[in-house]
Design a protein that fits this description.
4-stranded mixed beta sheet, 4 strands, rod-shaped
Length: about 100
């Protein structure tokens, strides 16, 4: 009767230890958010915890251009600063010439 109890305890302790390690690794994980201003004001990349939004930087400045907004990578999709970050991402500034 004593042996199955010991085996069960060892198995449960191992599972708990594995879950604790996974939790610690998850809590240490961060994603990198890079701001590509295409020649405007330079911003440092920031590290963001999983499933948290990134703080919107001040609008960049570039001589001869008007800042249009921040976009996802090189797409025409505007970046939503309320969205939660779930992977490394580059947020790109779009510009239009001042005429």
């Amino acid at each position: 009767m004593d042996k199955p109890y010991k085996i069960t305890c060892v198995v449960l302790a191992s599972i708990i230890a594995i879950l604790v390690v996974i939790l610690i690794l998850y809590l240490q994980k961060t994603f990198t958010v890079t701001f590509d201003t295409k020649g405007g004001t330079i911003y440092q990349a920031v590290e963001v915890r999983p499933n948290t939004p990134v703080i919107k930087p001040l609008d960049p400045v570039m001589e001869g251009f008007r800042f249009v907004g921040w976009y996802v990578g090189n797409t025409d999709e505007k970046f939503d600063f309320n969205s939660k970050i779930a992977n490394d991402i580059t947020i790109t500034a779009k510009w239009e010439p001042i005429i």
